[in-house]
């Protein structure tokens, strides 16, 4: 049991609803449920009673709740002291991201880092992959986020966050009755793709399955993509990260996509080049942030 588990436990006690608590914590309901189950197994007791109206803490859960609040209060005092030290860290960090990467990460971790490190001047933006690589190579950028792992002797590449592939399917489509979709289901199926990240992921999966995908529409606009799916032009494989599945009409359903290679986001830094203190702090922060959300 760790601090993050206690924080998630206390959040669920306050919200009395797994869905609401998961949304407030920016994790999946399954991830929150697994964490609570691990705590129950570790303690050997049930912490919540479950009903159609939500969850309520058991007697043991209420006891843990009181202790957890005290523990978290003391922990906050420790982190406040550390944050005073963080305020002594000054510097700049320039982060470049592959196109489509920022919506997968969302703004939350960037804003949290800025809040916790007010004296670090953080800038970040999306660019074409070639521009990102060039800026990392010439030292303009300190850190590069990419979904595709760049095969280069110039960079250290560290995967840190596994993404969640889904498929938007018209309700009357033959694939709508399946419990999940595989790459073989995409063979001879008309595809509507949105953005370069989804495009290259699907093309790579299909190539490894020895067929060329039948792409009928390719757009960078998610609204156009959803309109095409709703019109029955095809299905749309789509990658989710910290962002949620888009609200869809009654004509569209969301199916899990079990792709051969689960896409991940990677942190790239220049090989054999020490990071500044502020850039290292940024990388360490991101690894910790997403470690608790996978």
Automatic annotation (TrEMBL):
A single GO molecular function term of this UniProt record: DNA binding
Alphabetical list of InterPro entries matching this protein: HTH-type_LysR_regulators (IPR050950), LysR_HTH_N (IPR000847), LysR_subst-bd (IPR005119), WH-like_DNA-bd_sf (IPR036388), WH_DNA-bd_sf (IPR036390)
Keyword check for Transferase: no
Limits of the HTH lysR-type domain: 1-58
SUPFAM superfamilies xref list: Periplasmic binding protein-like II (SSF53850), Winged helix' DNA-binding domain (SSF46785)
Keywords: DNA-binding, Transcription, Transcription regulation
One CC-aspect GO term: cytosol
UniProt similarity note: Belongs to the LysR transcriptional regulatory family.
Protein name (database record): HTH lysR-type domain-containing protein
Species of provenance: Acetobacterium bakii
Lineage: Bacteria, Bacillati, Bacillota, Clostridia, Eubacteriales
